[in-house]
UniProtKB/TrEMBL annotation:
GO terms for biological process: glucan catabolic process. Belongs to the glycosyl hydrolase 5 (cellulase A) family. It holds the Pfam family Cellulase. Gene3D superfamilies: Glycosidases. SUPFAM superfamilies: (Trans)glycosidases. It comes from Rubripirellula reticaptiva. The chain crosses the membrane at residues 40-60. It comes from the Bacteria. InterPro entries: GH, Glyco_hydro_5, Glyco_hydro_5_CS, Glycosyl_hydrolase_5. Keywords: Glycosidase, Hydrolase, Membrane, Signal, Transmembrane, Transmembrane helix. GO terms for cellular component: cell surface; extracellular region. Residues 119-402 form the Glycoside hydrolase family domain. This is Cellulase (Glycosyl hydrolase family 5).
Length: 424
């Protein structure tokens, strides 16, 4: 935002004329009773002063009109007592939904039985979000998930954007541009998310397992390439911030290895170099619960900080899925683990001074049609996880709310919020 200083063209003219005329008159009066030669000389001096003053003001004009820079307000760390979360540029709590970007949604990859997504282009859809009190969107770049999944037993993944292909890159950035612009026109914040599930490295396209998932190698070139394209592109968009990964490790905070943390810190360094002022969200773990309570969200934050992450403009993302009784291989854990408190690790993190952000909140089982895991309330007596977020003052982004067809899920939540007293 810029504003001009108060001196305008009319004021400049008046200042220069008045100053010159006053000097001219003063010199004339001083020599009024002198001889004619001195009188002529004094008036010549006065005239020259008048001209000089005008020239000086004219030359000074660019300085007078220098634009005052005001720092744009950006989403970032918000502290109030022992609450540390991420809020919008004016300190507003972020309430967001998901907007998908991936090659599969576009007409050039249209397949039988696959509906195209057109919500990015729909002004009506964006206006309806604003009407429902939504002030942020999570732009989900879903091609990483497509790339690491395929039909069970297949060696080819689902269609995905090749980030070394100019046409695919142009189409991907065009979609993200549209979402960023749509949000900006409505005063909404945008969190751009690199989205895979249970992995972040490059997949090995050998044979997809029964869960349609390929195994991963050691490189992470695709992820790095995405952020190299995106981070610098939107760094001057004050309403945009970045979520580096989505549930990158299966599944608990205690499953994150030293190698994982080194990789995330390195990715953070790359993005921070390309976007020095943009807020960055790390981890975005699938669940907050750990069967080894010493290796919790706070442990991850401290380890990342040791590796160079500056949490004055970064945060820890979390997803409160009820996965506490599932181990990294999808097997059942000890029954006691299922009773772990899902919110305590988050409040511990915030009380230690690290910002927490709920980047994916789903609905409780049975409330909507969904194959995703359960997202129960996090505080006793609450109806939904969003009610818990509202009570705690933690910004949130909903899942299963992408596009006009899932607007009914958002409407269900709004009705429940009115019924149970957590409306926004």
């Amino acid at each position: 935002m810029r504003r001009k200083m108060k001196i305008d063209d009319g004021s400049l003219v008046k200042l220069s004329l008045n100053a010159g005329l006053r000097i001219y008159t003063t010199v004339s009066l001083i020599t009024k009773f002198g001889n004619p030669t001195m009188l002529l000389l004094s008036r010549s001096i006065g005239l020259l002063v008048l001209i000089a003053v005008g020239i000086c003001f004219s030359l000074a004009r660019p300085c007078v009109y220098a634009q005052e820079q005001t720092t744009p307000k950006r989403p970032g760390v918000f502290r109030q007592n022992d609450l540390v979360t991420v809020r919008g540029g004016d300190g507003e709590m972020l309430r967001g939904v998901a907007v998908f970007v991936f090659k599969y949604r576009r007409s050039d990859v249209q397949q039988s039985g696959v509906a195209l997504l057109d919500d990015i282009d729909s002004d009506t859809y964006w206006d309806e979000l604003v009407d429902r009190g939504i002030n942020a969107v999570r732009v989900v770049y879903f091609d990483p998930w497509q790339r690491s999944h395929g039909d069970a037993g297949a060696s080819d993944p689902y269609p995905f954007a090749d980030l070394d292909n100019a046409d695919d890159v142009a189409a991907t950035l065009r979609d993200i541009d549209k979402a960023v612009e749509q949000a900006d026109r409505r005063g909404m914040s945008v969190m751009i998310n690199y989205h895979d599930t249970g992995g972040y490295r490059d997949p090995l396209h050998t044979v997809a397992a029964d869960d349609r998932h390929f195994s991963y190698g050691e490189s992470m070139q695709y992820c790095q390439r995405f952020w190299k394209l995106v981070a610098s592109r939107y760094r001057n968009q004050a309403h945009v911030f970045y979520e580096l990964t989505n549930e990158p490790v299966r599944w608990h905070p205690n499953d994150y290895t030293a190698t994982d943390l080194e990789n995330f810190a390195s990715l953070y360094g790359q993005v921070r170099s390309d976007a020095p002022e943009t807020h960055v969200v790390l981890v975005s773990a699938a669940t907050t619960a750990s069967w080894d309570r010493r290796r919790n969200l706070l442990f991850l934050a401290r380890e990342l900080e040791k590796r160079g992450v500056d949490f004055s403009n970064a945060s820890i993302g979390f997803h409160p899925y009820s996965l506490a009784d599932i181990d990294a291989d999808g097997q059942a854990c000890s029954p006691q683990v299922a009773d772990l408190d899902l919110i305590k690790p988050v409040t511990e993190l915030m009380r230690a001074g690290y910002a927490a952000l709920n980047t994916e909140q789903n609905f409780p089982t049975g409330t909507i049609e969904s194959e995703d895991p359960d997202s129960p309330p996090l505080l006793k007596g609450d109806s939904t996880g969003i009610q818990s977020m509202q009570r705690l003052g933690i910004s949130w982004f909903l899942w299963n709310t992408s596009g006009p067809k899932e607007m009914r899920n958002l409407d269900w939540l709004i009705t429940d919020a009115a019924k149970h007293g957590y409306a926004w």
